[in-house]
Write a sequence for this structure.
C-alpha cells in the first residue's frame, strides 16, 4: 500500500482559500477538486469524509438544491406520531464550518464529462477532477396510468425528502370514520424495500387510536416483500383485521389510478379510497442520466470503488447506483460513500486505499416499541457487490428484544445524521 | 520484602505495558490509518453525540474495544449487527479499530 502521507498536503492546503465567484465558481487553488452533487445520505457523507480525512488537501464543493435535508428515514415515524417534523431536518452549516466544504445551494443542471464541468441552475459552472453523484431517485410519474406530478397532492407518494409526508399525515388524521386508506407500493427495484410496509404499520398505528373502524388495503405490484413474515405477523398482532395485503397475482395488475375519484383500478376490482399513498416506479436522479453514466434506469458501478463503469472520473452513490445485493437505503448510501471517499483521496492525494467493505441494516417500526431489523455486510466482487453474511429479526423473539431493536434504531438515526452533517 | 519486590514488579510491568514495550497480543499489527478507514463502518451508528440505544465508544480503552469485538465475533455477546460486523473482522482489523477509537476524543 502506498504510504505517501496526505499530511504533506496540509500546510499547502491551509495556505489556500476558497472563493465563490460568478459566473464560474472558482475554488481558488491548485488543490485537486471534488464536486459532489446531492447532499443526502450518500453525498453529504462523501463530502464530509473527503474534506475531513484529506485535512484540507482536497477542495470539496457540495451542490445541493435544498437548504435543509429532511430525511426520508424516520419520515414514517413522523407519520406515525413518534417524531416531530423538525427532528428529521438537518442543516449543512457544519459541513462548511467544520470541514471547509463549499456548500452551494443550487441545482446541478448538466455535466460535461469531457471538459469535467458541472453546470448549475444559476448558469455558473464548476470544474472537477472527480465528480460524485448521489442524487437519489426520480419518480417515474408515467409508470402508473393516471398518475402525474399534479396527482401527487391528491395521492401523495411522499417517497422523496420534503413536505409531502406532512400532507399525507394530515390526510390520514382527517380521514372519515371507518374510511379506507389505500397504499400502492412501488415495483422493484426501489428506494427502501421495507419502507412501504413500515408506512402501513405507522398508518395503522394512528388509525387504531383515532379511527379504529378504518381499513387499510395494500395493492401491491409485487408478490412478496422485505421482512414480509415479520410485518404480517406484526399487523395481525397489533392491528388485527385492519390491514389487507393483496399481491399482484391476486389483483392481476394495477391498470390505473384516478386522483379525482380516488379510485385504483386493477384487473380484479376497482378500489375506492379516502386516502391513497401511491408510490410509482423509480429511476436514478436526472443528473446521473444527464452525465451519461446510466444504463437503463440506474448507474452501473465498479464495486471496489463506486466509480461508474462509464467514466472513471465519476462516482455514483446510493439509490442511483446499481449496488447489486445492497438495498437502496440511507445506510447503504452512507457505507458506499466511505468506500468512494477513500478511493478518491487515494487517487488525488496518494493516500492509502483500503479494500472496500460495505454494510447495511434497515430498522423498521411495526408498533410502539416493536422494532425489527434486517442487515448484511458485503464485499466488492469483480462485477457485483456481494453478500458476505446476513441476518433478520425473528418472529418469536419477544417484546424486550423488539423494544431494544427500536431503541437501537434511535441510536442509528442519531449516528448516521451526525456522520452526515457534523 | 517479598511484598515490596512484588509491588515493584507490578509497577514495572504496568509501565512497560503502558509504554507498549511489552506487546499486547490483541493489538498486534494495529495500523492507525487502516483503523481510521474501517471506523467508517462503525461511525454510522456509534457517535459521541448520543449514547441512546447505541453506546458512544470514542476514547474507550483499546483493549476493551478489541475484547468486545472478539466476544461479538465469537457470538458470545448478543446483537446481530455487532456479530455481523465483528464476524467479518480479522485480528489486524480489530487491533486497528481499537487503537483508532482509543485515539478519538471522548
Ligand atoms: C419512507 C422512507 C423510509 C426510509 N427509511 C429508511 C431507513 O429506515 N433506513 C435507511 O437506511 N434508509 C431509509 N430510506 C431510504 C433512504 O432515504 C435513501 O435510500 C437514501 O436517502 C439514499 O441516499 P442518496 O444519497 O442516494 O439520496 P438522497 O438521500 O435522496 O439525497 C439526494 C439529494 O440530492 C439532491 N439532488 C438531487 N438532484 C440534484 C441536482 N441535480 N442538483 C442538486 N441537488 C440534487 C436532493 O435534493 C437530495 O437532497 C427510506 C426512504 C423512504 C422513502
Amino acid at each position: 500500500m502506498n504510504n505517501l502521507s496526505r499530511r504533506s498536503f496540509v500546510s499547502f492546503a491551509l495556505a489556500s482559500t476558497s472563493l465563490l465567484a460568478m459566473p464560474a465558481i472558482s475554488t481558488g487553488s491548485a488543490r485537486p477538486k471534488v464536486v459532489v452533487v446531492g447532499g443526502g445520505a450518500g453525498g453529504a457523507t462523501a463530502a464530509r469524509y473527503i474534506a475531513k480525512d484529506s485535512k484540507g488537501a482536497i477542495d470539496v464543493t457540495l451542490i445541493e438544491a435544498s437548504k435543509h435535508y429532511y430525511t426520508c428515514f424516520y419520515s414514517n415515524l413522523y407519520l406515525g406520531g413518534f417524531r416531530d417534523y423538525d427532528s428529521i431536518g438537518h442543516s449543512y452549516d457544519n459541513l462548511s464550518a467544520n470541514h471547509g466544504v463549499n456548500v452551494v445551494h443550487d441545482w446541478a443542471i448538466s455535466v460535461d464529462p469531457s471538459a469535467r464541468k458541472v453546470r448549475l441552475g444559476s448558469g455558473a459552472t464548476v470544474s472537477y477532477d472527480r465528480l460524485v453523484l448521489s442524487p437519489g431517485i426520480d419518480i417515474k410519474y408515467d409508470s402508473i396510468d393516471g398518475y402525474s406530478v399534479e396527482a401527487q397532492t391528491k395521492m401523495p407518494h411522499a417517497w422523496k425528502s420534503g413536505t409531502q409526508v406532512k400532507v399525507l399525515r394530515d390526510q390520514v388524521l382527517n380521514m372519515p370514520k371507518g374510511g379506507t386508506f389505500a397504499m400502492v407500493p412501488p415495483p422493484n427495484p426501489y428506494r427502501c424495500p421495507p419502507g412501504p410496509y413500515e408506512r402501513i404499520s405507522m398508518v395503522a398505528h394512528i388509525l387504531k387510536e383515532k379511527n379504529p373502524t378504518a381499513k387499510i388495503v395494500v395493492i401491491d405490484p409485487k408478490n412478496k416483500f422485505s421482512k414480509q413474515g415479520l410485518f404480517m405477523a406484526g399487523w395481525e398482532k397489533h392491528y388485527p383485521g385492519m390491514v389487507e395485503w393483496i399481491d399482484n397475482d391476486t389483483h392481476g395488475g394495477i391498470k390505473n389510478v384516478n386522483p379525482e375519484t380516488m379510485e385504483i383500478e386493477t384487473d380484479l376490482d376497482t378500489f375506492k379510497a379516502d386516502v391513497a399513498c401511491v408510490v410509482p416506479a423509480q429511476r436514478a436522479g436526472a443528473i446521473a442520466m444527464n452525465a451519461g453514466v446510466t444504463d437503463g434506469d440506474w448507474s452501473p458501478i465498479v464495486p471496489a470503488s463506486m466509480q461508474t463503469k462509464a467514466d472513471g472520473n465519476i462516482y455514483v452513490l446510493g439509490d442511483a447506483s446499481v449496488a447489486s445485493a445492497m438495498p437502496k437505503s440511507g445506510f447503504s448510501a452512507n457505507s458506499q460513500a466511505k468506500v468512494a471517499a477513500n478511493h478518491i483521496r487515494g487517487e488525488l492525494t496518494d493516500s492509502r486505499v483500503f479494500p472496500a467493505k460495505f454494510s447495511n441494516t434497515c430498522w423498521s417500526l411495526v408498533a410502539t416499541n416493536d422494532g425489527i431489523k434486517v442487515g448484511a455486510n458485503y464485499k466488492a466482487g469483480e462485477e457485483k457487490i456481494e453478500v458476505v453474511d446476513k441476518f433478520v429479526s425473528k418472529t418469536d423473539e419477544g417484546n424486550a428484544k423488539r423494544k431494544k431493536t427500536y431503541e437501537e434504531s434511535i441510536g442509528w438515526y442519531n449516528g448516521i445524521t451526525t456522520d452526515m452533517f457534523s | 520484602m517479598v511484598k515490596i519486590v512484588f509491588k515493584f514488579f507490578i509497577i514495572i510491568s504496568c509501565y512497560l505495558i503502558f509504554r507498549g514495550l511489552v506487546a499486547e497480543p490483541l493489538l498486534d499489527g494495529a495500523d492507525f490509518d487502516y483503523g481510521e478507514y474501517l471506523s467508517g463502518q462503525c461511525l454510522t451508528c456509534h457517535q459521541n453525540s448520543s449514547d441512546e440505544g447505541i453506546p458512544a465508544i470514542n476514547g474507550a480503552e483499546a483493549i476493551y474495544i478489541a475484547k468486545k469485538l472478539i466476544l461479538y465475533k465469537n457470538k458470545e455477546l448478543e446483537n446481530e449487527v455487532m456479530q455481523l460486523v465483528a464476524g467479518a473482522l480479522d485480528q489486524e482489523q480489530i487491533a486497528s479499530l481499537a487503537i483508532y477509537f482509543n485515539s478519538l476524543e471522548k
